[in-house]
Design brief:
The complex is a heterodimer. By secondary structure, chain A is an alpha/beta fold. Chain A contains 8 helices and 15 strands. A 9-stranded mixed beta sheet of chain A has the order 11-10-9-12-8-1-6-7-13, with helices on both faces. In chain A, strand 9 and strand 10 form a beta hairpin. The model of chain A has no long low-confidence stretch (mean pLDDT 94). Chain B is an alpha/beta fold. In chain B, helix 3 crosses helix 4 and helix 5 runs parallel beside helix 8. Classes of the chains: A alpha/beta, B alpha/beta. Strand 11 of chain A pairs antiparallel with strand 13 of chain B.
Chain lengths: 260, 318
């Protein structure tokens, strides 16, 4: 089985995250934590069935950290797509680039499964898996809390807003996994050493045959007009309970019209 | 002008539908509601009360027809037929998938998790919050069409002063996609009987500090008429069902009032609740990070503070 895992380099959630000139400040980046679940799912499937796991990302040099983390965990190959024209891409532009890269990987050898996480912790839109499936013309089975593959079919259990669903999709398919799907492994020392030496294939838009006009700022369907830090909350109250904190809390709620 | 995709429960529109209809009216022009499945006629008066002039019924003959790509294709056909250039949905998990497919089909700009939407000089402008609501964004859709998924509680629902009955238009059943995907099982989860955590105006969340006893959390939620939520720790421990999980991988909430009991306030949790109106925290650990964002913080034992607060709230409400 050959699996492509799409991963994203995102600002570390533990860092002071923000925007510079309307764009996400990516100076303190790391592999999107939720993508580790996708890498883990891919590794387990390949450990059972044999095959190859390719980690794929889009972004400038720093994004190598994201695919390298995938290699440390045990992925076999890493690809990063980069191009000045990609800067400023919205979710659709990102999906166009990912889809083109998956197609190129597929031209080299058939791809059975495209795996993603449930969301990127910077944008939190959870739309790229669906956009990718649509771009590739593949069936999708996303938000999987459980994934099994057998007889050319992927079966997932997904927990939606008010309903639990079990889906089966023929391979190849796009599958997204949630953080309930597994506990991602920590890279072993050997894995870390091997990843250090491994090369990351770097592809450009020209390599993928993607028209620069459909991605990046040029192709973006949405544009940030303004990004401003929100002011800290004011007039905050912090008290230590001396026996009447519950009563004081109720009074606070009533004063603020929250008991209506 | 605008289509609103209605989420429903037990044959009635969910609260989000009224928020979306209110937002749609703000964009100007006619507002159409889309009802997925049977029963549009019964729901039409409620939708008309919030400004829908037409309710489109899209029957779902099979479970596969209800999958996001199939629903999105039907919505795209409908939008093309009606000429509506904006589609609004509630930003739940299924709707995000529908929105993605729909935006591609309509060559539309796609915004998820918007807290506001308006039309400025003919263009659709949205507001969002980013990075655990520490930043505000304003963005413009640069295509003629827009698909916008709105965060819950972002818009205060306002009924129209003089509602006009809505026309119900029944469309052909949504066609399943010929992509081989099969719905093996689709099971609605039983309702807790309390307000839905994703749409409630008041949410009381229990965390690690409850040690598995959600009694005081439920008691306070009931006194406040609110929903019960939980942290990842609490759902992982099996203390409460997974769908109660508030956080960036669970339900994102922005109620008028959030109360965290025994919640430390880890960044993953804050990512799903920091946009809340008023934040109250009760925790025995004075160093818990949640106190950094709480409007009203109590360092104390939740098993003392919550029941006392619940009793006092019942007394004041009586």
């Amino acid at each position: 089985m050959r699996i492509v895992v799409c991963v994203k380099h995102v600002p570390d959630v533990q860092s002071e995250r923000g925007f510079v000139d309307g764009r996400v400040d990516r100076s303190e980046g790391t592999l999107n934590e939720l993508d580790e679940n996708a890498v883990e799912a891919a590794l387990r499937l390949v450990e059972d069935a044999g095959g190859e796991v390719v980690v794929l990302t889009v972004g400038p040099d720093d994004a190598d950290d994201a695919v390298r983390r995938g290699l440390q965990m045990g992925a076999h190959r890493a690809v990063r797509v980069t191009d000045d024209a990609i800067a400023g891409s919205d979710v659709v532009g990102t999906a166009v680039v990912l889809a083109a890269a998956v197609r190129r990987l597929g031209a080299q050898a058939p791809v059975d499964l495209v795996l993603t996480g449930m969301a990127a912790l910077d944008g939190l839109m959870s739309v790229v898996p669906s956009l990718l499936a649509a771009q590739l013309g593949l069936p999708q089975a996303t938000l999987a809390a459980e994934v099994t593959v057998g007889d050319g079919v992927v079966r997932v259990r997904r927990e939606l807003d008010h309903v639990t669903e079990v889906l089966e999709a023929p391979l190849p398919a796009v599958v997204g996994v949630t953080d309930q799907a597994n506990d991602p492994r920590y890279p072993s020392f050997a894995g870390i050493m091997a990843a250090r030496k491994a090369a990351v294939d770097v592809w450009s838009l020209a390599d993928l045959g993607v028209d620069p006009a459909v991605v990046g700022d040029a192709g973006a369907r949405t544009r940030v007009l303004e990004a401003t830090p929100r002011p800290a909350r004011e007039d905050r109250v912090l008290l230590t309970d001396t026996g009447d904190a519950g009563v004081r809390l109720a009074a606070f709620l009533e004063e603020n019209g929250l008991l209506a | 002008m605008t289509l609103v995709v209605v989420d429903a429960a037990a044959g009635a529109p969910r609260a989000s539908a009224f928020e979306l209809l209110t937002a749609a009216r703000g964009l100007g022009g006619d507002v159409g509601a889309v009802w997925l499945g049977e029963g549009a006629a019964a729901a039409a008066p409620a939708l008309a009360a919030y400004g829908a002039t037409v309710v489109h019924e899209l029957p779902l003959a099979t479970a596969e027809a209800g999958l996001p790509a199939a629903v999105a294709a039907a919505l795209a056909d409908l939008a093309r037929a009606t000429g509506d250039d904006v589609v609004l949905l509630a930003a739940g998990f299924e709707n995000r998938e529908r929105a993605a497919h729909l935006a591609l089909a309509l060559d539309a700009g796609l915004v998820v998790g918007a807290t506001g939407v308006e039309r400025v000089d003919g263009q659709v402008v949205t507001t969002q919050q980013a990075f655990a609501a520490t930043w505000s964004l304003r963005g413009v859709v640069t295509r003629p069409a827009a698909v916008v998924a709105l965060a819950s509680n972002a818009v205060r629902p306002v009924a129209v002063a003089e509602p006009v009955p809505a026309t119900v238009v029944r469309h052909p059943a949504v066609a399943a996609r010929a992509d081989g995907v099969r719905v093996v099982e689709r099971t609605p989860r039983p309702s807790s009987g309390r307000p839905d955590v994703g749409e409630a105006q008041v949410v009381v969340v229990g965390g690690r500090g409850t040690n598995g006893d959600f009694g005081p959390v439920v008691e306070l939620a009931e006194a406040l008429g609110g929903a019960v939520g939980a942290t990842r720790d609490a759902t992982d421990e099996g203390w409460i069902e997974h769908e109660a999980m508030v956080g960036q991988t669970g339900v994102s909430i922005s109620p008028r009032l959030y109360v965290g009991a025994g919640v430390s306030g880890a960044v993953h949790h804050r990512g799903g609740m920091q946009a809340s109106g008023t934040i109250v925290a009760v925790n025995s650990d004075p160093d818990a990070p949640i106190f950094e964002i709480a409007d009203f913080g109590v360092v104390g034992d939740l098993f003392e503070v919550l029941p006392q607060a619940a009793a006092e709230i019942r007394r004041r409400k009586a």
